[in-house]
Design goal:
about 130 residues, mainly alpha, Arc Repressor Mutant, subunit A, 2 domains, two-stranded antiparallel sheet, 2 strands
Length: about 130
């Protein structure tokens, strides 16, 4: 399924907002998407953005009577892994260490002792599995 996605994986701000809405709702009509968009453009503009997302391979649709129901092509976990890999390569020169360091820097005040323990467990598990 991933191979059907076009190479252009970058999304505009509006496209990202639409994808966030569809992921949150699991499936949505154009009208439902428009209702949830901040400062929404016209209905025809929303439909055009959805069409672009389908062409890029991010959304698919099925027909339910006169309505189209849009669903993500990729499960959220696969999409998030793909986005994170792209982010890692683009902004951190492929360095997992730099990504984790940046996340820890951003989250420093939000992490509890339990969070640190969980992170240590994940690192130990990855080390044992040879990743």
């Amino acid at each position: 399924m991933e191979s059907r996605m076009r190479n252009d994986k970058s999304l505009s701000r509006r496209e990202r907002q639409i994808m966030d809405i569809v992921y949150e709702m699991k499936e949505a009509t154009a009208a439902q998407i428009m209702e949830r968009l901040p400062s929404p453009p016209s209905y025809s503009a929303v439909r055009a953005l959805i069409r672009v997302l389908e062409q890029k391979g991010h959304l698919v649709h099925r027909q339910d009577g006169p309505r189209y129901i849009f669903v993500p092509r990729l499960a959220k976990d696969k999409a998030s892994r793909s986005a994170l890999a792209h982010l890692k390569q683009t902004f951190f020169d492929g360095s997992t260490t730099d990504v984790v360091a940046a996340l820890l820097d951003l989250s420093e005040e939000d992490l509890s002792e339990d969070d640190y323990l969980k992170l240590n467990e994940l690192i130990d598990k990855a080390r044992k599995e040879g990743r």
